[in-house]
Specification:
Pfam families: Beach (PF02138), WD40 (PF00400). Keywords: WD repeat. This is BEACH domain-containing protein. The protein folds into two domains: 210 residues, Neurobeachin, Chain: A, domain 1 (Orthogonal Bundle); 290 residues, Beta Barrel (Lipocalin), CATH 2.40.128. It is globular, with a radius of gyration of 28 Å. Helix 3 crosses helix 4. Strands 1-2-3-4 form a four-stranded antiparallel sheet, with no helix packed on it. A four-stranded antiparallel sheet has the order 5-6-7-8, with no helix packed on it. It is built from 13 helices and 20 strands. By secondary structure, the chain is α+β, with helices and mostly antiparallel strands. The C terminus is likely disordered.
């Protein structure tokens, strides 16, 4: 925490040691090699392995680097206090922290039970020794992250940016800030192509790769200071100020297709899918947020209309809309629903304002337009009705769970060309899925032809058929960032599968899960409706903390989602 509170180079935290570094800079004389304050770097592959040696793939890389086994605790994080003292006192230790120290508690625990050797007192190495103020790894991460996101750090964050990426990275300002590192670590200071001697060229490349690299310099002027939170909140409407949120009821509820099974909010409209999934009414309500009117409502709103009346009217204020209900007969999707399907579990709205629905009697999933509720595309893969589906936050993938006990991963191609370029490609599953779509694909003449045919479809798949459940799949979630698919059934509990390979990774120690959600920070959130219990897990460890009971007012929790950096729910 001190590093972020001071906003100085690591080598400048201890005044006595800094004086030695300054003397070294002044006394260093070489006709070719430029002066520097430090003989090592704050970020290198060795630094990463030091902090992350307890989790894969860094465990394997650490063992390979040290000749097949761990050496001693000097090469890995074993004690937080000892490491802190080292970066304060040791002339050869100026390493920074890695991001995982602020969000991944597994870096402190030997979760894979690896033989990590012994320390200098012949004590077996295992989990990291934490400081007295941390009760456990989760508590350490919580407090460490809280310090990082504190108002004080936010007010001085620009100073750290100046050192690492900005105008204090090089030149006279770097010298004054005691921020000069070996010249070979800076981008553009060494031209490998001009080194004729192959031995010297290889040695230089090894030094650049292993010694550390300074990031590209992005700014040559001081970075602006972040404005205080209190000032920002005064400029925002209720939509960005949670402490001021309150409800605004529409005067004509019959002009909205509620109750809703799914809602998607964009900058200019709100897509609402009612509770009759898959034969749902779909409406696009237009609005202008952050635009207060005379009645103190902080937005303008215009009820959605069907295709016949879609051209009517300018945007009306929320309390000045037309009162006639006959204009608000929203288009309805043509579908035949399977029995006993939970509507909110089988629908999702994409960033293109299109609707994906399951729960069809023909076991398919359908892509529906929001304007007119027309069926754009139908995809088949299950041999029983789809009971749940979930869309990845980046809108590149979605997963479906079914009464046939399987979970299928699909890829969805968005209208935006950027989605076609940026979506990661999982390789084909090791085994061909035994599904109707897979069987039809396998009869094709060549893989190339199959790929060309698939690329023309908005819904591509099945990419993988995920197995392991023994009963109907009740909920699912997918994260492209984590490369994981989470799912649950009443008989098999919660399972995690790899998005890339389709293989089962692990089973979470939890009973029933009626809702499941993955965050980009590696947190699994599980809701048990019968026990009114909300449990949190990490994707590597067991329970993140003791499950906490969450007692709600009468009703059923039907949606679960992380917001932002998994700090809001």
């Amino acid at each position: 925490g001190t590093r972020f509170f001071s906003m100085k180079p690591i080598g400048a935290l201890n005044p006595a040691r800094l004086k030695k570094f300054q003397d070294y800079y002044s006394s260093f004389k070489d006709p070719i090699i430029p002066n520097c304050h430090y003989g090592s770097h704050y970020s290198s592959p060795g630094t990463v392995l030091y902090y992350l040696a307890r989790i894969e793939p860094f465990t394997t890389l650490s063992i390979e680097l040290r000749g097949g086994k761990f050496g001693d605790d000097n090469h890995m994080l074993s004690d937080i206090t000892r490491t802190w003292n080292s970066v304060l006192e040791d002339m050869n230790d100026v390493k920074e922290l890695v991001p995982e120290m602020f969000y991944l508690p597994e870096v402190f625990t030997n979760v894979n039970s690896v033989d990590m050797g012994t320390n200098e007192l012949a004590k077996r190495l295992g989990s990291v020794e934490l400081p007295p103020w941390a009760e456990n790894p989760v508590d350490f991460i919580h407090k460490h992250r809280k310090a990082l996101e504190s108002d004080h750090v936010s007010a001085h964050l620009h100073e750290w940016i100046d050192l690492i990426f900005g105008y204090k990275q090089r030149g006279k300002e770097a010298v004054m800030a005691n921020n000069v590192f070996p010249y070979a670590t800076y981008e553009g200071t060494v031209d490998i192509d001009k080194i004729a001697d192959p031995v010297q060229r290889q040695a230089t490349q090894d030094q650049i790769v292993n010694f550390g690299q300074t990031p590209s310099q992005l700014l040559i002027v001081p970075h602006i200071q972040r404005r205080p939170l209190a000032d920002i909140l005064q400029l925002q409407t209720i939509f960005r100020n949670p402490s001021e949120v309150r409800s605004y009821l529409l005067p004509n509820p019959d002009q909205c297709n509620v109750p809703a099974s799914a809602v998607h909010v964009s900058n200019d409209c709100i897509v609402v899918v009612d509770a009759n999934v898959p034969a749902a009414h779909v409406a696009v309500h237009h609005w202008q947020p952050n635009t207060p009117d005379g009645l103190e409502t902080p937005f303008l709103f215009h009820h959605g209309k069907n295709a016949i009346n879609s051209s009517g009217g300018a945007i009306r204020r929320i309390f000045k809309g037309p009162t006639s209900a006959e204009d608000y007969h929203f288009p309805r999707a043509i579908a035949f629903a399977a029995s006993a399907i939970q509507p909110s579990s089988t629908v999702a709205v994409t960033c293109d304002k299109e609707v994906i629905t399951g729960g069809h009697a023909d076991n398919s999933v359908k892509l529906i337009s929001s304007d007119g509720a027309r069926t754009i595309e139908t995809a088949s893969g299950h041999i029983a009705p789809v009971t749940c589906l979930a869309l990845s936050p980046d809108n590149n993938y979605f997963v479906t769970g079914s009464r046939d006990t399987t979970v299928i991963l699909w890829r969805i191609h968005q209208m935006s060309s950027s989605h076609w370029k940026n979506a990661p490609e999982p390789p084909p599953s090791p085994t061909t899925p035994s599904t109707p779509l897979a069987n039809s694909i396998s009869s094709g003449s060549s893989p190339i032809r199959t790929l060309e045919t698939s690329s023309k479809r908005r819904i591509e798949g099945p990419m993988h058929v995920l197995r392991g459940h023994l009963g109907e799949v009740t909920c699912c979630s997918v994260s492209s960032d984590l490369g994981l698919v989470a799912s649950s059934s009443h008989t098999s509990g919660a399972l995690l599968h790899s998005l890339r390979t389709g293989r089962l990774i692990r089973k979470l120690d939890v009973g029933e899960a009626h809702l499941i959600c993955l965050s980009s920070q590696g947190i699994v959130l599980i809701w048990n409706e019968s026990e009114k219990r909300l449990s949190t897990f990490t994707v590597i460890m067991e329970s993140l903390c003791l499950p906490r009971s969450c007692h709600l007012s009468p009703g059923v929790l039907v949606a679960l989602r992380f917001l932002g950096m998994a700090s809001l729910l």
